[in-house]
Specification:
It comes from Hibiscus trionum (Flower of an hour). The protein is α/β, with parallel strands linked by helices. It has one domain (5-313). Helix content is 19%, strand content 23%. The chain has helices at 28-31, 60-72, 83-90, 124-136, 199-202, 225-243; strands at 5-7, 10-15, 37-38, 48-55, 105-107, 111-113, 121-122, 150-156, 161-162, 171-177, 185-192, 250-254, 257-259, 282-283, 289-290, 292-293, 298-299, 304-306, 311-313. Strands 1, 2, 4, 5, 6, 8, 10 and 11 form an eight-stranded mixed β-sheet that branches. A three-stranded antiparallel β-sheet has the order 3-12-13, with no helix packed on it. Strands 7-9 form a two-stranded parallel ribbon. A hairpin with a 2-residue loop joins strand 1 (5-7) and strand 2. Helix 2 (60-72) runs parallel beside helix 6 (225-243). The model is unreliable at 1-10 and 17-30 (pLDDT under 50). It binds 2-acetamido-2-deoxy-beta-D-glucopyranose (3 copies). Residues 47, 104 line the site of one 2-acetamido-2-deoxy-beta-D-glucopyranose.
Amino acid sequence: MLLTAVAALLIVTPVIGYRPRPDFKPNSSGLNLVDIKYHMGPVLTANITIHPIWYGPWRNSQKNIIRDFINSISAVHSKNPSVAGWWKTVQLYTDRKGANVSRTVLLGEEVNDRFYSHGKSLSRSSIQSVIKSAVTAAGMKRLPINSGSGLYLLLTSDDVYVQDFCTQICAFHGFMLQPIVGYTRLLYAWVGNSAELCPETCAFPFAVPEYMAGFKALKSPNGDVGVDGMISLIGHEVAELATDPLGNAWYGGQEMARVEIADMCEGIYGTRDDEPYTGSVLKGKDGATYNMNGIKRRYLVQWVWNHVVSDCTGPNALVK
Ligand SMILES: *[C@@H]1O[C@H](CO)[C@@H](O)[C@H](O)[C@H]1NC(C)=O
Ligand SMILES: *[C@@H]1O[C@H](CO)[C@@H](O)[C@H](O)[C@H]1NC(C)=O
Ligand SMILES: *[C@@H]1O[C@H](CO)[C@@H](O)[C@H](O)[C@H]1NC(C)=O
């Protein structure tokens, strides 16, 4: 289950590494044991702007896979099933006034932290320091401060270790209250490239743990196991930040085992059928597995919880 660390100025909700369980078939009767409910806090109803912070060395080809994904969320002309169609489930969540989550998600300004300003091994608190420096740094390019619906997305390269990475978490999101004098809060998420450390845990199903002898790793849609694996995690975090930015809006479960809308559907990429590990997904002519189209590429992104129908839903659902 999920851990929620609560400290004075910090609340984080991590994504546990998805471990495929051969005996586990996700289905709604099991999921319904947890009920996602609204707790009266804000959701992100204004245009959302995502600011990537590239920590460590990143190739432009890798950045473009991620940039194109972010730019696909509100794109109007992608082929179905689309990333924009996936976001429609997130838009079903409203605040106390009945305003929906924004349909607009924009790629904002970016910065590089190529030389590991806080080292190659980051603790939870140094993650916050990296993000703070990205908005306050003197003498170098810095990110604009948007304490409303700006999302600061820290992306660490495959040679960077983050506390509990691989053993307990693949990514997490949180917020800082009064991070800088004059500003009320900053929303952020961290997602690491697991290619070197634990692709079988954090980039499943593009890599498979040894104990799953019978399951062959699927071919990733953009030829980069680590980055293609990050896409689903980025989708997970952005969906949860939009619907539960301060940990007091849409969630379920017990206080110490909170579950948010993407936690409910981890490892589910399609209609549940005879394929217990992913659900029904698509295969390109090149053999790559995906479940949605972006503006220039294909992606495999987990589904999210739909509170209207009480099930995980996604744009590639099969009509039964
Ligand atoms: C769904 O999950 C529950 C609880 O794990 C299980 O008892 C039930 O048989 C499952 N149903 C289907 C259709 O797989
Ligand atoms: C929000 O985004 C839309 C679409 O890009 C744009 O037309 C609109 O002007 C933006 N609104 C604000 C307040 O920035
Ligand atoms: C807003 O949310 C409500 C309640 O879930 C839903 O019925 C409606 O379709 C949503 N609107 C949009 C534009 O998604």
